[in-house]
Amino acid sequence: MTQTNKPQFWQTTSLEAMSTAEWESLCDGCGRCCLIKLEDEDSGAYYATDLACRLFDGETCRCRDYKNRQDLVPDCVKLTPHEARTIKWLPPTCAYRLVAEGKDLPDWHPLVSGRAESVVEAGVSVRGRVFASEDAVPFEEFPSRIRRWPLAWPRGAKAAKRVTSGARPK
Fold this sequence. Notes:
It contains seven helices and six strands. It is α+β, with helices and mostly antiparallel strands. The protein is globular.
């Protein structure tokens, strides 16, 4: 567990001011952002499926080619502080979204727990929940793979609280 008496970098540093290492460490490795999302063109609503990006590794819940992902998957979003504040399909558990909203990281986040497996144990990870890769299912069948859980806070996972210590820059 991280020390609670000393504010951590995500509690005191704006997303824009974070180092590359700090930024990358915010990712909890849940894999929810790597699931295929569909947008209703009429309403603008987003829906998540249980289909994963073709580069997603279901065992590690990481990208198989993170460095080249945007060349290989042109619609892969490179998350930036602006996107963390504006993308509507980011899961509510996403550390980038939480920090952008002025919230602390939950107890199960690896930066807090000190253990990568805490994400799986809290029910936040997609490990074991991905139906298939997007390449294995015809596009016409994507709507039948829509699921609520990827864009919801898991019942067993404790919600993040607002940061009350330290003055987080915007």
